Amino acid sequence: MRGLELVFFAILLVLATLQVAISHGEQPLSRIAVHNTRLRLSENADIRASPSILGLKGQNSEWVTLEYASPNPSNDDWIGVFSPADFSASTCNPDEGSKQSPPFLCTAPIKYQYANYSSPGYRKEGKGSLRLQLINQRSDFSFVLFSGGLANPKVVAVSNKVAFTNPNAPVYPRLAQGKMWNEMTVTWTSGYGINEAEPFVEWGRKDGDLMRSPAGTLTFNRNSMCGAPARTVGWRDPGFIHTSFLKELWPNSVGNDLVFSTYNGWRRRGYWRDREGEGGFKEGERYTYKLGHKLFNGTYVWSRVYQFRASPYPGQSSVQRVVIFGDMGKDEADGSNEYNNYQRGSLNTTKQLIEDLKNIDIVFHIGDICYANGYLSQWDQFTAQVEPIASTVPYMIASGNHERDWPGTGSFYGNSDSGGECGVLAETMFYVPAENRAKFWYSTDYGMFRFCIADTEHDWREGTEQYKFIEHCLASADRQKQPWLIFLAHRVLGYSSGTWYAEEGSFEEPMGRESLQKLWQKYKVDIAMYGHVHNYERTCPIYQNICTSKEKFYYKGILNGTIHVVAGGGGASLADFTPINTTWSYFKDHDYGFVKLTAFDHSNLLFEYKKSRDGKKRKAKISPIPKRQYNPVISQLETSSHGDHPLSRIAIHEATFALTPLAHVKASPSILGLTTGQNSEWVTIEYSTPSPSVDDWIGVFSPANFSASTCPSENPRVYPPLLCSAPIKFQYASYSSPQYKDTGKGSLKLQIINQRSDFSFALFTGGFLNPKLVAVSNKVVFSNPNAPAYPRLAQGKKWDEMTVTWTSGYGISEAEPFVEWGPKGGDPIRSPAGTLTFERSSMCGAPARTVGWRDPGYIHTSFLKELWPNTVYAYKLGHRLFNCTYVWSKEYQFKAPPYPGQDSVQRVVIFGDMGKGEVDGSSEYNDFQPGSLNTTKQLVQDLKNIDIVFHNGDICYANGYLSQWDQFTAQIEPIASSVPYMISSGNHERDWPGTGSFYGNMDSGGECGVLAQTMFYTPTENREKFWYSTDYGMFRFCIADTEHDWREGTEQYKFIEHCLASVDRQKQPWLIFLAHRVLGYSSDLSYAIEGSFEEPMGRESLQKLWQKYKVDIAMFGHVHNYERTCPIYQNVCTSKEKHHYKGTLNGTIHVAAGGAGASLSPFTTLQTAWSLYKDYDHGFVKLTAFDHSNLLFEYKKSRDGKVYDSFTISRDYRDILACTVDSCSSTTLAS
Ligand SMILES: [Fe+2]
Ligand SMILES: [Fe+2]
């Protein structure tokens, strides 16, 4: 029981905070403080209304003129219209805010206007007049003059009563499609209950026999309302709502009588061939109908006569025209109830539709119908406004927040937007062919269209009843007959650039497209349309944030995705767009308007957006072939290029000879590493040339004899200098010799590392693009080029195993590699090492396979097992040559990891995208990687306070220039030889087209993962699939591989779930998820422009796992900056705390830490709700677990090593067990 309560509480908590940042403005009537009303009747005041009897000609709407006078006029005097007229007659409803003193005003007026509205002299003269439009609302009316403004209303005078001749008359018919295609429903309102009269519709084919169909009757009482104002001042008797079902209609047209003519390439309906006398209908032939009530005294009350045209047979080919919009609301033609420019477009939209009505077949008003917001009288006024439309064509509605949302009533969102109506009004006032009208989802066909209408105010996510309905609706359309498949919903479940969706960091209603895009794609939905955002926007055809077509106006053939449209500008006050221009947004309009679809036939659809102010259009034509294919391979997802590799600037293949005996290059010393066997040394280069130029440069080649051999077949070259390899580094000749360009003499100091071969230095003229070889230096070589170098530690597959990986020039046919190691000061033992290498043919493409190729030597890994926890070990690398001599590295040390769950202070450093930098300033280009050396320096300085390092992808940006991996392992040697250096795979390690990487770009420069897999050890099952789990004391790390598919159902997804699920949180409370690309949340500009704030399909796929298994922190790289979010789930912050988290987090904290070295990437200017701290600088993250209950998170800048952002988590085990939204499996009531 306790568990259930917690779950329930937590769900309420989250959905309450989901309450969207939009209010749509207030209902104008809510400005009036009805309960504050007092009496200030004055003998000298007066108000009169005329005429006092309305609708003498049977009409249900009439203008009334008011004349009034006051002895103390004021600018905020106002006129309220009350109905029933006797507004103060009864005591107030005892339940609802009873009132002790007269005037017992417990009801809001049905409309109001300022007394000086059309009488500017009112304040001086105390006299005014006003014209107001009244509609028949089943009761009489009175008009009251108030002083004291809306906040402190005082009744000054009350008018005579005004009434329609028959207040109970049947009014405002609205048509809707029934559950069958040949059924039309007519719903109307009257004052006749079933005890007074029998309601029915008399109808038939025009000029044919009439018949009568009975109507059902619904009503409801105050207790059906869920809260105020609907239950209090907004309540008004709704009368009776009748619905009649007109069945077995003849379709709008018959057989093949259509004659087409061609106009501008468009097939257009020509004319009907006259089939009179053969039983066919003529074009436009309609049914007539009128509403009737047979009173029990035998008399009849009738409405006027209306007409409609029956719907076409599903699949029938005829021109079919559909109008779609949301959020129209109502407006008052007399200017009353105007507030804050609320709903000013509503009347324009209505007017345009009425004017074009003969060219409209069906209307969809997709939610936010009239914004009554609990003031029930407004529903009558809305049905009166749309009567000309709704009485003539089916007026289909969807449910919006303003119809449905109310806390604790089963709505998906717990806000108060419905003003207490909680859906009752929408469900009753309009018919929809839903199975259960409280669940507002339904399917309806119109000829060649299939519409699937979702209800965003009820849960639509996978596994729900509604999700099943949506799938069934989409799947069951026969596309050969009904090619035009349209998805409709109120809130934006797809894509919107509306400001608040952008600020939520989602560009949609969170959980919208994550949940439904698979269905839209699988069933090839053509267009998905939404309201809720009060503007217009159209996207490209899109799937998973990627445009599937670049065409903007004339779609031919396969769309490959769904076009998403926001058409929420029907009338309510407009909503702004974010300034971010996303890649998928094709057209935006901050204005009122609506959409019209015209299906000319099974192959041609016209989409038009029209402005409400003038009815003019913007169009796009779609002519898809009904059968589309879905290609699941993602080829062009690249979002960030990270800049080019500096070596790629050099046009190696263009190199030519310009050797001259007058030029020379000299390098010294010529033997390196003599003093201590070191693997890194500075070399001085001196050079001179008779014809210097500012773009002359020095290239460092290794092997030294770079032009000796013929080039391999991958990059054939037949003329000398046979330069087939890129230099390993380069520098301008004038870099440290500014006089070089004048004197032709210069010198340079370069740092050289031991890379298993000799070196030469070449002077080039002609810049990088037309390199001409001028002179080559003497050779330089390390005393032992094959020496074991650059050890890097990594955790093994077991907690008590440390792996040592290093590089040497000794193959297994020359020497036996091993590690000699043991507790510091103890007896050493020797552990053998395995050896890996690879060939040029292992590379997937250029430059790795061509100019970037360089012999990788041999990569050895030894497994040091059965370590004692936290013990310091010494080790050195050894090779036993077959002549029985030994080659040794220097001695290194490491501390063994703690036992999993062991309580000790444990310190973890995490960053991504560090890359390498050159201390000699070489290979510098475009400020690439300026932070890399700083980060390395900070870590080396703090090394005694670091236990393990995670380099979260984009390791060295070698990008296919293999020599750079040696240089990277040399750069990090001080770190990686002392603490485990764990890597994950990034795009720059893995991506290459056609090689199984999830992304088909060329970021790895042809390495396709081979270098990363070989140069570093990771405790994966399969090193090509770079996901793994590793424990460090109280930490469990689950490392994902974003370059392979992670989505639900994949091998990796199963691994992630298993890694998260299999940790004993009592022993290992700190659960960290790592991945290179941002699968969570990032404000990086590239992700913002994609409109996703993440790698598309990231959090959609994984957030359920993070939440269920209570991941504390999810960390990413790829974006070259730093950012931290609130604890978050499904785009909603689950805690407002920013620095000191205590107890349950309820969500996961997401961190982008990709600023370790590569050139920085900018943020969007948009401030999302979830982004707590951003830094456009180089830096890294450090986690310190003090014990099982206290974790410290620090972000440090690389430039100074100081902490710029931090937070703590303090909690105990019970807090991890606590249930939060979606984190506990269902509980049982059994005891
Ligand atoms: Fe809405
Ligand atoms: Fe990356």
UniProtKB/TrEMBL annotation:
Residue intervals of the Purple acid phosphatase N-terminal domain:
791-895
The cofactor required is: Zn(2+); Fe cation
Q: For the Purple acid phosphatase C-terminal domain, which residue ranges apply?
A: 561-616, 1147-1206
Matching entries from Gene3D superfamilies are given as:
3.60.21.10, Purple acid phosphatase-like, N-terminal
Could you tell me the superkingdom of the organism this chain comes from?
Answer: Eukaryota
Q: Which reaction does it catalyse?
A: a phosphate monoester + H2O = an alcohol + phosphate
SUPFAM superfamilies membership:
Metallo-dependent phosphatases, Purple acid phosphatase, N-terminal domain
Q: Per its UniProt record, what Pfam families does this chain match?
A: fn3_PAP, Metallophos, Metallophos_C, Pur_ac_phosph_N
Class of enzymatic activity (EC top level): hydrolase
Q: Where is the Calcineurin-like phosphoesterase domain?
A: 321-536, 907-1122
Q: Which PANTHER family match?
A: INACTIVE PURPLE ACID PHOSPHATASE 1-RELATED, PURPLE ACID PHOSPHATASE-RELATED
What name does the UniProt record give this protein?
A: Purple acid phosphatase
Q: What is the lineage of its organism?
A: Eukaryota, Viridiplantae, Streptophyta, Embryophyta, Tracheophyta
